[in-house]
Amino acid sequence: MATMHEIFSAYQSRLSDLEASQSTNPFAKGIAWIQGRVYPIHEAHIPMLDQGFLHSDLTYDVPSVWQGRFFRLDDHLARLERSCEKMRLRAPLSRPAIKRTLCAMLARSGIQDAFVELIVTRGLTGVRGLSADEVANLSNNLYMFIVPYVWVMSPEVQLAGNGSAVIARTVHRTPPNCMDPTIKNLQWGDLTRGMFEANDRGAGYPFLTDVDVSEPKGERQSDVNITEGSGFNIVIIKDNTLYTPRKGVLEGVTRQSVFDCCTRLGVPYVLDKVPLRMAYEADEIFMCTTAGGVMPITQLDGKAVGDGKVGPITTRIWDVYWRLHYEEEFSFAVDYEDERG
Ligand code: PLP
């Protein structure tokens, strides 16, 4: 990538500074906020009787901070609010209060490149079964934490251009009418199984389809579509056009950034069903997520994607994607000194 070395070496040097501060700042490894109190990340605990933990009755979101700037924070908070509404949850803090709290936490931690997680749970129950009315009336909890930036695909793999994926055969994506994938959720049973399968087959990442591909080949195979993977959206590039699923996936904020990159670069993109065969015939493939950005895949099911190298369109999108992190339209700087004071 044109700017990959530059971006990663500046990041490594900020990371070294952060690591040097960890012996004196108890929050530099991470900071958590639970019911109005902050804790060093390793001292933070969730109460055992929170329905979020007991029933995965929660939603969450993950914004990021890059070089001291929150990236698309309002887009993440808007999606969290939509998810809460669909789940009949209410975050106990308003959006401005959440933003103020996150900025203060970030300043206290000194972390410049951050993975930020907000989780809204149903709240605490007693130790007995609850009626739907009682569940609806629980007071919902918010948990927030900030840790150093997390990479779904490490900088080393991105630099080497050797990201590999498989089409999962042992599991397919939970159907949208069972769990609405536009609600960011932690019912990761299918995604975790997919990760184990990818690892067993010597690859880094699973791509899940919408129906079972393990069945004997037959008519149905032509109806199989790509959905998403363990924490990322999937983008296929064919004949200079991007294709990514319209439905059955999380509407990723990074995916939106990819569309913004396309608009800027004059590259067309299509949101529609993405048949499985398109993945096998792709010129280029990448995955995208907040924790890692635009992540090239050059091997699928053990075979080269295109010529087996990171392709020219992925490269251009990668560069613009990281540039957006410094633009006022998409990001704002946190004043670490002012927030700490
Ligand atoms: N799909 C799933 C299942 C995810 O968990 C995620 C992120 O965690 C994404 C897609 C990408 O979403 P975003 O770009 O908003 O981080």
Descriptive report:
- The chain has 341 residues and is of the alpha+beta class.
- The protein is built from eleven helices and 18 strands.
- The strands form two sheets. Strands 8, 9, 10, 11, 12, 13, 14, 15, 16 and 17 form a ten-stranded mixed beta sheet that branches. Strands 1, 2, 3, 4, 5, 6, 7 and 18 form an eight-stranded antiparallel beta sheet that branches.
- Strand 8 (164-167), helix 7 (189-200) and strand 9 (205-209) form a beta-alpha-beta unit.
- Helix 8 packs across helix 10.
- The longest helix has 18 residues, at 4-21.
- Residues 62, 228, 231-233, 250, 252-255, 288-290 line the site of pyridoxal-5'-phosphate.
Q: What's the mean pLDDT score?
A: 95
Radius of gyration: 21 Å
Bound molecules: pyridoxal-5'-phosphate
Question: Can you count the helices?
Answer: 11
Helix and strand content put the structural class at alpha+beta
Order of helical and strand elements: HEEHEEEHHEHEHEHEEEEHEHEEEEHEH
Question: How large a portion of the residues is in β-strands, by DSSP E?
Answer: 15-25%
- Sheet with the most strands, sense and barrel status: 10 strands, mixed
How far from one another are the termini?
40 Å
Roughly what percent helix?
25-40%
Name the poorly predicted regions: none
